[in-house]
Amino acid sequence: MVSIEGLKVEFNARALFDDVSYVINKKDRIALVGKNGAGKSTMLKILAGLQVPTAGTVSAPKDVTIGYLPQVMILSDKHTVMEEAELAFEHISELQASIERMNQELADRTDYESEGYHKLIDRFTHENERFLMMGGTNYQAEIERTLGGLGFSREDFSRPTSEFSGGWRMRIELAKLLLRRPDVLLLDEPTNHLDIESIQWLENFLSTRCNAVVLVSHDRAFIDAVTNRTIEISCGKIYDYKVSYSHFVELRKERREQQLRAYENQQKQIQETEDFVERFRYKATKAVQVQSRIKQLEKIERIEVDEEDNSSLRLKFPPSLRSGNYPVIAEDLVKSYGDHVVFHDVNLTINRGEKVAFVGKNGEGKSTLVKCIMGEIDYQGKLTIGHNVQIGYFAQNQAQMLDESLTVFDTIDYVATGDIRTKIRDILGAFMFGGEASDKKVKVLSGGERTRLAMIKLLLEPVNLLILDEPTNHLDMRTKDVLKDAIRDFDGTVIIVSHDREFLDGLVTKVYEFGGGLVKEHLGGIYDFLQKKKMESLNELQSKPSLSASPTTKKEDAEAASENKLSYEAQKELNKKLRKLEKQVSDCEDKIEELEEKITGVEQKMATPEGASDMELYAEHQKLKQELDSVVEEWEVASMELEEAKGE
């Protein structure tokens, strides 16, 4: 559908990428990956037609529509949520208005036999049929389903968009984009403002109801669930893999090892040649050989190796005082704003050294409870912060509290102590402030860069209770690994508010679910929690499980439902395998039917007097029979595998 030919982009005489060519096909689900600064967002802007490349072309048929969701956009404040979402169907509204005008004109005119009247009837009929094919007035239900999937309640539909935070307004823009159903959907970090339930809904939508998708995301679990092709931008080139992200990581590792071996062999060859030239440069008897070797060196096309990432860099929190056994204890905690109760009857105890996650839909009170713990807002009930607790708090507004007059390096230099000071440059590099970027003033940094700098600052301060509110929104995968390893090795207590399942996986041992005004404790990791929620929602049919239901009943239901069931990840893999096998069996059956028809046709020709002596017909018949045998064999193997998979 979209063809990219010889694309080149230069910034300050430096090529971001050069001579890049690839094709986006119908139903492609492409993950665009690479280090920060590699050009992923630039590539999306070029595909969207918002940026002109230095050289090369992007071409697509005239009727192909492209939708683009940037990381940052200018949002409107003039409508309600529903009115804003309805703008996605402006073309239908305009068509409806046109049909109404033609209908009125037909009613007013009396020249029934004229050519103009008959042309108007034809146009009215055609446009009315097109209106009905596009869904007519039924799009209202589609809007409600999409807004609901992205976390909006019915009560929100009539609220002005100005009442919502930037994250929720981004969801409205995402809803509008999805409702337009473009042929190619370009998404730049679409999960940054979504909770876990909304991300799972978006995964399903993109996998089952979209056309081509090109997305940039640092959520590994999300891109793994959605994509079937991975394009990596590295060293100004692209590497196109027709596989999901997890498989790409394995293949990329193999490619890098091959590159390194080839690079090392070439370097050895170059060194040996240079040594020969140096040794015999001034010997007349070796002049011919020396000149030959010099020409060899000039002709060698130097192998480039992808820059090594620093994900192996390990950060360690500085030592701090040992806290009491129970850093946080909440008893009958209540928080309300007027008549609106955010949560009530919250009772929880977080032990020293525990790493816990706060999860749930946006607006259910996760950040509110954090603010209660921090003493930033008042509440009812009892909240006890333990003995010797030193809190390190990361929230989005932390980035606004940095000293704008300092450079990036100085900001970190002032808080770093001990041996860590010798590694400041390495740490800054791991968080994408390598080279000249470390000398930038804080005041010129973007919002995302400030967020990353605030995160580094926090990592170097001695604390024993770490509270992180959506820490991964502006971090790439490599940097998230650095942060995750640092938190895993941290011997203090950690509370993480996050929607990033892959980041939480293997990090937290307890999950607190916020919803319906209650906070419910789940023992186990994030995928244990997701598995349990999946089971419960199946038992509850279409409705989402209510946190106010009896805990005992829900526990029994979850245990009964989880018997003989696969884990959440394994179930997802099995479903993918089943779909693949079912398609293979179906394709084989279609091919068998097609071949049998061809064989019948050839046999009918062979039965005629003319065909009986036609040796080419016999050769064709033999070839078709062999092809049929091969397809039948493939069908038998696939059918057996499908039966075995269904029996798992």
From TrEMBL:
SUPFAM superfamilies: P-loop containing nucleoside triphosphate hydrolases. SMART domains: AAA. Residues 2-260, 328-541 form the ABC transporter domain. It comes from the Bacteria. CDD domains: ABCF_EF-3. Keywords: ATP-binding, Coiled coil, Nucleotide-binding. Residues 541-552 have a biased composition (Polar residues). PROSITE patterns: ABC_TRANSPORTER_1 (PS00211), ABC_TRANSPORTER_2 (PS50893). GO terms for molecular function: ATP binding. Pfam families: ABC_tran, ABC_tran_CTD, ABC_tran_Xtn. Residues 564-645 form a coiled coil. NCBIfam families: ribo_prot_ABC_F. This is ABC transporter ATP-binding protein. It comes from Bacteroides sedimenti.
